[in-house]
Amino acid sequence: MKVLDLRCSHGHGFEGWFASNEAFEGQLAAGLVECPVCADTRIVKLLSAPRLNLGNAKAPVEAAASSSAPAAAQVPAELSPEARWMRAVREVLAKTEDVGDRFADEARKMHYGETEERGIRGQATREQTEALLDEGIPVMPLPIPAALKETLQ
Length: 153
Fold this sequence. Notes:
Number of strands: 5
Number of helices: 6
Helix content: 25-40%
Radius of gyration: 21 Å
Strand order of the largest sheet: 2-1-3
Shape: elongated
Strand content: 15-25%
């Protein structure tokens, strides 16, 4: 398994796992490789040191280094802005109820005390969103990447 560092035309960096460089090139040419943040398919491969996913097996040097390295050295580096955003979106998805296209109705019911307040998410048209804001109901758009709408394998 080859792990490649990729970037979309909007500057979002992410990893892609492929069976081979040929598999990456084939999927890229077919438009199957897309940014998990914005779904852009204009992807470029960045220069990086080769890295292979070999399962749970550790290379002898890596295993020796990890057993003798101090705990502070094993803490991952600060997350990228994209990774922080994806983590925040995942948290919102986990802590809210998806009400789908009933979003505007449910938001109104909560605002006017007709139903219990809770975290919700869903779809609303621009007109519905503007009407909610005019009524003093706070809402905000949250673009959810396609990769988070499905179970990750």
